[in-house]
């Protein structure tokens, strides 16, 4: 058919097609498709994909795309990342989206760090750990066998774990190997803290003791509390030991002499935790680098 006659025929067919009802249009298309060969079907498929499957991430300006992505929840965003490489690249480059996702998990976000991939990795890592926690797969577990009674006290430091037990002993373990490095006879331990040379224990017998790992000898004892000692902390530089007790008091001791330097009152419940550490912030009471004493009971923390 000549081009001019074809154009006239096509115009006539188009005009007639527009006058049909919707079902008639569908029937007409079905008939034409049944008459089409592979070339025509391929042409139809390519054009339908362009008309029906519009990639808004490709067509919209990037600023508008980022604005729309902010309305999607993180789970949907991750699903969208699987659509194609371009979608993954665009979504992965939207800093504000991933900062918002991290904020939703409770993270403190530094807005000055404009690195979308960093925040996406932070979010992914946090979600993985949350899923592992829910499925009880977050930690590897192993058992340390050696005590013959209940273990009341634990203290972990640099790959070593100290345990204090009702069997009147304390043990030092290598967590990686599970081997017991030291085992010494003590009193019933309610609290333990250690370093390379010594172990300090608080006991249900109302006393505190300092022990030498290598010999197991008791090198100092501290008496003065009238209730069980639930927490101890010390600092060799200050030659100071602090303790919290069921008698509602905190005591400050000379670590080397074993004498009580001060008794702090004010708690109305058992003092279950004491911490002696350097301050890292400026306040009315102290400056960074000053040592402060924190103590806690069931209801409040004092310093």
Mind explaining what this structure looks like?
The chain has helices at residues 3-18, 22-35, 38-52, 56-59, 62-69, 74-81, 85-92, 95-104, 116-134; strands spanning 151-157, 160-165, 169-174, 180-185, 189-194, 198-203, 208-212, 218-222, 229-235, 240-245, 250-254, 260-264, 273-278, 291-296, 301-302. It has 303 residues and is of the alpha+beta class. The strands form four sheets. A four-stranded antiparallel beta sheet has the order 1-2-3-4, with no helix packed on it. A four-stranded antiparallel beta sheet has the order 5-6-7-8, with no helix packed on it. It has a four-stranded antiparallel beta sheet with strand order 9-10-11-12, with no helix packed on it. The longest helix has 19 residues, at 116-134. It is elongated and about 115 Å long. 18% of the residues are buried.
Percent of residues in β-strands:
25-35%
**On the 0-100 scale, what is the average pLDDT?**
89
- Low-confidence stretches are none
Helix proportion range: 25-40%
Strand order of the largest sheet: 1-2-3-4
Distance between the termini: 98 Å
Largest sheet: 4 strands, antiparallel
Order of helices and strands: HHHHHHHHHEEEEEEEEEEEEEEE
Q: How much is the radius of gyration in Å? A: 36 Å
Q: How many DSSP E strands?
A: 15
Total of helices: 9
Q: What is the SS-derived class?
A: alpha+beta
Q: What characteristic shape results from the CA principal axes?
A: elongated
């Amino acid at each position: 058919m000549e081009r001019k006659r074809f154009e006239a025929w096509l115009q006539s067919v188009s005009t007639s097609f527009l006058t049909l009802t919707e079902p008639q249009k569908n029937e007409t298309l079905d008939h034409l498709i049944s008459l089409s060969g592979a070339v025509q079907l391929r042409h139809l498929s390519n054009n339908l994909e362009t008309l029906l499957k519009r990639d808004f991430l490709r067509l919209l300006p990037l600023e508008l795309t980022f604005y729309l992505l902010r309305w999607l929840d993180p789970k949907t965003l991750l699903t969208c990342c699987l659509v194609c490489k371009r979608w993954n690249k665009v979504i992965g480059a939207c800093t504000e989206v991933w900062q918002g996702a991290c904020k939703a998990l409770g993270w403190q976000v530094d807005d000055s760090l404009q690195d979308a991939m960093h925040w996406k990795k932070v979010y992914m890592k946090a979600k993985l750990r949350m899923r592992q926690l829910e499925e009880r797969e977050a930690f590897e577990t192993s058992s340390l066998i050696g005590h013959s009674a209940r273990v009341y006290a634990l203290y972990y430091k640099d790959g070593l774990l100290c345990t204090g037990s009702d069997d009147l002993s304390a043990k030092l373990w290598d967590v990686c190997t599970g081997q017991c490095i030291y085992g010494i006879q003590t009193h019933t331990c309610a609290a333990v803290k250690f370093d390379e040379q010594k172990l300090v224990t608080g006991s249900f017998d109302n006393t505190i003791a300092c022990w030498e790992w290598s010999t197991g000898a008791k090198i100092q004892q501290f008496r003065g509390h009238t209730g069980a000692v639930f927490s101890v902390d010390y600092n060799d530089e200050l030659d100071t030991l602090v303790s919290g007790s069921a008698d509602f008091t905190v005591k400050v001791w000379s670590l080397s002499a074993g004498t009580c330097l001060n008794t702090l009152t004010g708690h109305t419940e058992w003092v279950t935790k004491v911490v002696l550490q350097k301050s890292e912030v400026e306040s009315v009471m102290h400056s960074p680098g000053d040592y402060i004493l924190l103590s806690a009971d069931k209801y409040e923390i004092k310093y």
